Amino acid sequence: MRSSHYLVTASVLAVATALSAGSAAAQTTGADAPALVEEVVVTGSFIAGTPEDAALPVNVIGADELQKQGSPSTVDLIKSIPAVQGAVGESNQFGAGQTTGVGSANLRGLGAERTLVLFNGRRMATSPGSIFVDTNLLPQSAIGRVEVLKDGAAATYGSDAIGGVINFITRKNFNGLELQGGYTYVDGSDGDYSASLTYGFTNDRSSLLLSGGYRHRSELPTVERDFAVRPYAENPQGGWSSFGNPGLYLSSANGGFTYTNPVVDPACNVISGPQTGALCQFQYIGFNNLVEEEDYWQLYGEFNFDVTDTTTFHAEILYAGHDVSAENSSPSYPPNNFPSSALTTKIQPNGYFIPANNPGLQALLATNPGQIPASAATAGLFTSVAWRPIGVDGNDLFGGGGKEDKRRFDAYRVSAGLTGEFEFGGGIGWDASMTYMDNWSSIATPDVLVGRLQLALRGLGGAGCTGSTPGANGCLWFNPFSSGTSGNAVDGRTNPNFVAGTANSREVLDYIFEEYAYDIRSQLYTADLVFNGQLPIDFGAGEIGWAAGTQYRWSGLERQNSDFTNIAVNPCADSSVNPAATCVAQNGPFTFFGALPDYDLDQSVISFFGEMAVPLTDSLNATLAVRYEDYGGNVGSTTNPKVALRYQATDWLAFRASAGSTFRAPPTTQISPASTTNLAYTTAAGGYRAYDTFGNPNLEPEEALTLNLGALFDFGDFRASVDYWSFDFEGPIDNESGSDIVNTLFPNGAAGANNCANPAFAALLSRVSFTGACGATAINRVRINFVNGPDVKTSGLDFSASYRARDVLGGDMNFGADLTYVIEYQVDANTIEGVAVAEATDYVGTMDYLGYGSQPQWKGTFFTEYNRDIHNVRATLRYVDNMIDTRAGSATFATNQEGQKIDAFVTADLAYRVFLPWDTTVSATVINMFDQDPPFARLDLSYDPFTANPYGRHFKLNVTKRF
User: What's the pTM?
Assistant: First the structure.
């Protein structure tokens, strides 16, 4: 079978080229090295070439190399690449938000949306709810190699290929049947396991590849790792909230007209706490998991057929999905949406009224004499913002633990094309293809309905409630106090003043909770036509190669909300009990999440591109490329050129260079005026707050200039490369920083002076809504917009080296290193609403929480490998440099300095592979041999999930049997 149908993604680099460039990751040694096919084409160019043409920084990681590493998952593989600075897919909601189970790739730390992920050289649709490709959908058992282009490639591939390209390519020329199975032992969980089946058939005219895979990850609770659940004094940001239950209430001093005097639930320090001033701290992190229970599956088929001697048909189909059926989270969220006075029966806004006849309040008064103001016996109490409906006792709807959120993702993809060569025209090749991908996600997060909660606090809750008598005729009470709480479900502390008869029933919980739910659909259709050949122009080193073509791209994004989530159906806080309710602030019916609009968006792009590979001399080659893309509308069009050179100075030394412009168009969701709501821990407020992000129809494409300068060394058994790279951004698309807005308005956090009364900050203050008077702890919601943000420039160095020592104790030894060093990550000053909210900052070596992410200065992998006959042993050392928390010096660290510096994370792995009789291969791996905990960080899980992992030492066994 010819491989010419891959010319649309062809590169001038072959696997052997990557080795000569010093790619330690592409090492294959001894008898177990797979045979190279006649033509191997990789990422970065539309022109088929030879190894001598290598001009781009590409690493090729083959299937044999992956097996030597212990067959890492796609997430583990991506996170191990030194040029990747932060990726999601490993931990739970604190790393991935409402896309738990989705994986990403983030070359150069520029954001996952700026790394183009390809499958067999073709684009994939973005993950629903995200603006990047979900790498966990890829059929791992069918992958033959992974190619990483660490350079801007907009001139070749168009939008999104800014930080680089990762191309996953399926296995070729595979014959037979292969079964694979693996199990990973993780202390504190039931372990992870996987299984796959792959069948391949090849003859003179056709080939077939079929693959199916399944992978299961088991739940790893936070309480199984000492580092993850820390006392308040050690890490106040470690899953602690001042909005808890037991919580803070307000009593009345004027007979129930207003409620202003704070009342702390007496059980605060008994089953919760510590109490800090008038606030009762609640640790929700014990209800969460470090890793959720997740299931992944993929089915893949590929067929190739030589229609004629010059024409080949190629088709592939993929179905993949993953399911997180019970993501654990806090038992309930603190309300930031409140009922109208018609439901509270009180004038006072921003709270929930608990009448004096609430049985839970009566029990609290009886068991805690003198600790609750006497006025509560007649005027009741009001909830403050520092409260949540369910806290330390867990949520009985979900077995007494945390809430269980649901995430489900499904994807379908089909691609087909013809590749051939004109019998006339001097060997001009052509490639015509079409690809369609359809992604679905279904998200459901339990949340409390405002109106139903208020009615239940008044004894009028329940689906079967009739009449107006509290607690009668099917009407149910909700108890918001510790009197109905038996104890702390996480640490086992018991409540001596628990009154069993006042505990909340499942019926009332089922009444007040509904699912904040929506489905998102992401579609992508592409049609490609590419021609390639050679021009009869020869400068003495060979004819000029060329490629030219066009691409049509259509993308669609659709969101359909459940009725309770849909702002058009339930716009108001009271809507759940009064469908006719009207309101000015349309925050929806949930206590925590804001209502969302449905949308149906699409975008079409037409592009034209051309490329030439010019052998100027026997030692100097040049590649020229240009691409034009037209988006229409306000986005407009863009043209991006690129030039790459390779000079073979001596037999052992070569130089390469590339420069070009690159761009990324704004996604449709970011130019639509519709909004999305995300949650973020807000230090000044002492808990999570809602950030409503609105699209901006006036967004322009972001642009960047890219440069790569490198040297390649080849001394036979020693090969190395060094590259300098830089990206210079103008107007990168991003949402405004909500944390910058909050920190600017409240520079001293919850204490000290703020800018509430400063007229110069009036416009900025209009972005924030408060539950009462302006103040940090009263922050309710923050509005942020997508904008073309401050310019960014980043640069650094890549190092790669490998050495083979032959005939050592009857075998060969290999040594390798792959490192990335970031010189700068400079962000210009930023202004929002005319107010300077951030100075120009270099983020190298920092963890910028809620901002530019994790940017370690050094990241590297080092390995030593021994091969002898059927045996292979590899020891790998992985290093992630230390980082400084950018909140150091702020109110976050005012009283506790721990965690300002996040230490380096160094782990060692040991993998053994053996080829056994009957075509059986066994590999055993010890990962993190010395059981290193991730470095402490002042985050929810007390570590940084983007750069470290929570497993500790774990063991992996893989068995492969071929028939």
Answer: 0.89
